[in-house]
Amino acid sequence: VSATDFSTLQRPNDRLLRRRFVNRGMEVVAWAAAATAVAILGIVVWSVAKRGLSALNLDLLTKSQAVNQFTLHPVSQGLANAFVGTIILVGIATLMALPVGILVAIYVNEFAPKQIKNGVGLVLDVLNGIPAIVIGIFVFGLIVVGHGQSGYAGSFALAVLMLPLVARTTIEVLALVPNSLREASLGLGIPRWRTTLGIVLPQTVGGIVTGTVLAVARVAGETAPLLFTSSIVGNQVDWNPAHALFSVPVAIFELSESPDPADHARAWAAALVLLLFILFTSLTARWLADRSRRKITGGR
Amino acid sequence: VSTLDATGEATRRSVTGRRVHLGDVVLQVVAGAAALGATILVGLIAYKVIEGARLSISTFGLGFLTHIGWDPVHNEMGAAVMLFGTVVTSLGALLLATPLAIGIALFLTELAPRWIRGPVTALVETLAAIPSVVIGLWGILVLGPLLANHVMPALHSALGFIPLFGTPNPTGTGIFTAIVVLTIMILPIVSSISRELFLGVPGELKEGALGLGVTRWEMVRGVMFPYTRGGIAAAMILGLGRALGEAIAVSQVIGGVDNLISWNLFNGGDSLAAKIANEFQGTSTNLEASSLFYLAVILLVFSLVVNLVAQWIVRRVARKQGLATG
């Protein structure tokens, strides 16, 4: 009698088989989901690389595009004005957003009472959640309606997008700085402001650089805030942010909606350059983040 | 002795206080002004967008929300088509992205060999870094034709009895293509938040379940899903918020049909954000410009509601888990 009992215990019954089958099925689904995501990335990058490489040449980077003033359709090769424009727009946006973002973070982490701290955190989340196109139309109403399109208006729109990103990461790294450091400095009689700016802030430089690089990578590819603020442009390379400046994302957007295959080729080439820049900066940021985290936590 | 020390400390502070206070006050005021500025900025955004929409709001009122069609020449404009397109594309994308994202997160936390986790996590996050205009370019030139030639006919012949899968659209643009593009764009957000939530499930709970002899999937369903339910809801809502506000990629692939609501997903449509983006070259009348602001007001309300709900869930979950562990 006992022998038959053991054999029923050892032989999996139908119910157990079904449970194992469901388990195995779900494992396959999870593997497939991850494979799908990686495959999508691979297909997108491969599409851009294949089509972009064949259209990429020196003229694209060094010569300027001529745009028909009435239809806004590009009529000649070269996107130099877009590359120059993006560098200036993102540069000025960083100069606007970085100091403000750091100051917000200092206030939240070093001075604010808990209630206000939560309030500002919520404001940053709300700001981060506002769609980029709404930021674009806000700056259109705020600046462009009175003063026309300009590089400054475009940069301001990008800076509004960057601000919550920079502030958030700075708050996070400031919170990582051990309190013993602040206490030691205050205990030595060093005033609060010098402790904050001279002792605490330098500890977080790595984290702030990482956050800024990530924010730059994010806004360098933004089209929506620039459409209404810095898109109606001349056909020459322009370094003056008081004029409306062309940009790589806006160029890709316009070229992608053109029926001309030659325009598509240039859109792919511009997309390839933009993608390489963004992948490079994101990877750099990731590397910097790992390094600064190791430094703050002492290698753990 | 301790009282003496305390008073000594207090006087020392007040003596040196006069010298150091200036710098402290300046830093606190400047930093506080920056924080106040960020707060005012949010208010200013709302104010400016509503101010721009005033002409349209006073002309159309709430009827704007239900009017089908966009006819600036006859001053008849409404947001119904864009509202429909925004809601259908966002919910469709959420429906496709959520199971996929949870699958990815489970793979990365429970299944994948250790050496594969880091690289796959990095790759999924890289997907989030691709600019929307590049996804849109790919969507219009590569994905659209692929869907029109292969996927749409297959879905139509298999599920054509459902009105959603009607006659395929040879251009490859339309609501369905927008859903696929948005799915790709929100997938990394939902999966990376889900992954962090799954990593936060206490090991003893998981081991306890496995020790009772349940399969891994039963452990996931019985322990990990209930534990992370609130957080996953918040992740989905954040993904929804991203999808609602996406202008560029959607405007490239949705087809820009702004006068017709069709339940056939393969037909063209329009969304709030995409409509605004497409009119950047200039509007024909002041009323049309104001109506674009009106669309932005709707979008702003959507994004505020979505964000606040997500925040509320996150805070509630944090409180509950704080009680459970503490």
Based on the model shown, name its key terms.
heterodimer, A: 300 residues, 13 helices, B: 326 residues, mainly alpha, 10 helices, 77% helix
Can you describe what's shown?
The complex is a heterodimer of chains A (300) and B (326). With 300 residues, chain A is mainly alpha-helical. In chain A, 77% of the residues lie in helices and 0% in strands. Chain A contains 13 helices and no strands. In chain A, helix 4 packs across helix 12. In chain A, 48% of the residues are buried. The mean pLDDT of chain A is 88. Chain B is mainly alpha-helical. Helices cover 77% and strands 1% of the residues of chain B. Chain B has ten helices and two strands. In chain B, a hairpin with a 4-residue loop joins strand 1 (70-71) and strand 2 (76-77). In chain B, helix 4 (132-159) crosses helix 5. The model of chain B is unreliable at 1-12 (pLDDT under 50). Classes of the chains: A mainly alpha (300), B mainly alpha (326). At the A-B interface, helix 2, helix 4, helix 5, helix 6 and helix 7 of A face helix 1, helix 2, helix 3, helix 4 and helix 5 of B.
Summarize, please.
The complex is a heterodimer of chains A (about 300) and B (about 325). Chain A is mainly alpha-helical and about 300 residues long.
Structural class of chain A: mainly alpha
Strand content of chain A is under 5%
- The average pLDDT score of chain A comes to 88
Termini separation of chain B comes to 37 Å
Order of helices and strands of chain A: HHHHHHHHHHHHH
